[in-house]
């Protein structure tokens, strides 16, 4: 058994996002939740571990990444890639820096290459400044993120607040000159004491040069664009010389469908409004004085007469004012974790009632739901919508899920995602 590129994704939707691009490029990548699933894989060019590392406290995230890199090494993995969110979602207490410290020390790296950004989704980096949908991230909707409000666009500054190591920058002007100029710049940065190097990401040409620089390094970090470009580069050159797995086409589960929404923000609210135009929606109040068990029981009682008759949605999302009131009462993470518990338990209850097709909005919500459903590994089926995809659980109890980051997608994404499972 051998693995070429082992990717640890910091959330489930990010892992699915890159998996769909790889599948479309002809790479049969494995999407894994439980490390025990490694034993049955055989040779694979790419293995993706979907985790819930993004919002874990730094010590817990480091311990998780440490254990998964050990599992991948035991399976014969050639290179480790820690994949974080394209928009670098993180606070000063975030775990990107500590995870970088782990990888640099564990693999004895004189320099750790870090490639944020995803130009295909208008998330770019210029002169180290992060832009989200063509605006500085600090002026975009990301500044209102309920858990990781992005108020500083300077990624060098952001990362240096999370680590004691010096952070350098590989600028677009250098990347534009090609790999040789970039390697010379990396050498100069090393002489200057910079151990972590953030690469600009103005366009996919920048990404291509970064992928060339990344080839063969024991470990690195980055977002979707670099991760995808590196995997495709290896695949096209047959760099690992591994047997290429050919899989039979996967079939979606047949049965009732439901939508679960834990993300918040104007994009999610518009998507819910479109869905509610033709299907029932239940909104759960996180400040409901009843016990969580009673709230879940009431939600499932509401769903009982609808199962098999019409798709439905259950959500904890609300407008900005409501989010602020909930966070004031429960705390930022407390509110998020309660929403995840409620929706995950509702998902398990719906499964027990025969629902086996789910659309889930929100990275953390997706992780909670997949865990509650007991999925350990899954097949990937790309969606016609660029960057999105479905997972179909391995094992006898087939379930189909469409996992979506909260702040992306057209207004009708819930409807089209359900239709895509037909």
CATH fold name of the largest domain: Rossmann fold
Radius of gyration: 21 Å
The total number of structural domains is 2
Percent range for β-strand residues: 15-25%
Unreliable sequence segments: none
CATH class value of the largest domain: Alpha Beta
**Protein structure class:** alpha/beta
Shape: globular
Number of helices: 14
Characterize this entry briefly.
The protein is an alpha/beta fold and 422 residues long. 38% of the residues lie in helices and 20% in strands. It folds into two domains: 3-237, Rossmann fold, CATH 3.40.50; 257-419, Molybdenum Cofactor Biosythetic Enzyme, Chain A (3-Layer(aba) Sandwich).
3D architecture notes:
This protein is an alpha/beta fold and 422 residues long. The chain folds into two domains: 3-237, Rossmann fold, CATH 3.40.50.10840; 257-419, Four-carbon acid sugar kinase, nucleotide binding domain (Molybdenum Cofactor Biosythetic Enzyme, Chain A). It is 38% helix and 20% strand. The chain is built from 14 helices and 18 strands. The strands form two sheets. It has a 15-stranded mixed β-sheet with strand order 9-10-5-11-4-1-3-2-16-17-18-15-12-14-13, sandwiched between helices. The radius of gyration is 21 Å and the shape is globular. 50% of the residues are buried.
Which features characterize this protein?
single chain; 422 residues; alpha/beta; Rossmann fold; Molybdenum Cofactor Biosythetic Enzyme, Chain A; 15-stranded mixed β-sheet; 18 strands; globular
